[in-house]
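User: Before I run my own analysis I want an independent prediction to cross-check against. Here's the chain; please return only the structure tokens and, at the end, one sentence I can use as a sanity check.
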Amino acid sequence: MSKVTNEESQSASKPPTAEEAQPTATAGSGVAVAEPGRRTFRDFFRGDLGFIPVLVTLFIIAFVFQILTEGIFLQPRNLSNLSIQIVTVGTIAIAAVFILLLGEIDLSLAAVSQACGAIMAVLLVRQGWPAVLAIAVALLAGTAIGLINGFFIAVLRIPSFIVTLAGSIAYSGLLLLVLQPQTTLSIRDEGILNITSTYYKDPVMGIGLPVLGIVLYALSLFYSRARRQRAGLKVPGIRQIAVRIVVVAVIVMGIVAGFQSYLGIPQSTTIWIVMVTLFWLILTQTAYGRHIYAVGGNAEASRRAGINVVGLRVSIFALASTLAAVAGVLQASRGNGAASQINPTLLLNSIAAAVIGGVSLFGGRGSVWAVVLGAMVIGSLENGLDLLNQGQEVKSIVEGLVLVLAVTVDAIIRRANAVQGR
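Assistant: Structure tokens:
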């Protein structure tokens, strides 16, 4: 958990990240000085490669289902469908990451998502609005809902659990109100439907965009290393950075090759990955992102350091509900319409995707990239069990067990770090 010290409070504009807030040994303190570029095996897995246990879990799931489904699971067609299926959960999971980093919870994300999707559908079908305007209004509705949630939580200081639980009930009613007298509303607008039916197979979008993402990742690692080096903090070695870049490049290009062997990269998947990349950059390369980690680690110390904690919390809840609205638009596109029945597992799966990926439920630790592997784990379990013709009861049991396991691992890691003074 990140903490803002007295010395750091003198520079309120640049609070530390979760790693920078950790105490470092100095010469003459009686503690061994950590040499730049030399990190322990434990430290190696506390960085960006901390996703390896989750990645191993994903490989095990894929291996088991590949055998049980007699080779169907890893076919390019099924993997392409899987990537489309996890977009809605993955988008809401991005919202959950921001909320969890603050040490808060938002139980209304699923209801907000489907209510905003219904608003878009009604404006399109019943009012005849253009797709762009209908989407814009749906997103603005999500932002307004988030501001309301944030006001009660940050300004009036009502627990987020109570506010968002009540909100979930209220926004479910809003969904019914918007769609009545119908329970489902079909969408025939090609602009909306093409969001999930379009694939990128051309070199520019199908290959150039993933390569650009790898380059941005590499530049970010070197920029972060240089910034930490100037601040006199412990930095990863060049070899470790090179390993990270190579691992990510191999994984990304392998996935791209699989997509290109079928129809290409789905447009909805591309939109999701672009959002993940954008918010990863915001969290890691901006003062706003550092403030989120600082507040999640210690809100009172952050306030004393000059961070506007109330404003930050309001903005995060507004951002989360806006992202939920984006997920609602994507879901309406994939389902060809809006429905009054809220998916009972949507919220659980979204939070589970973030937690399984390594985001702490107690705030201050985690990465937005966690949602990618977390969503893939959740999506793979559902997809594989569907291929095996298992019912919802089996899927719910399996996903619940995986979530409990992820939270247990998170608690064990936190206790181990606390013992070592981290």
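Sanity check: Residues 203-230 form the longest helix (28 residues).
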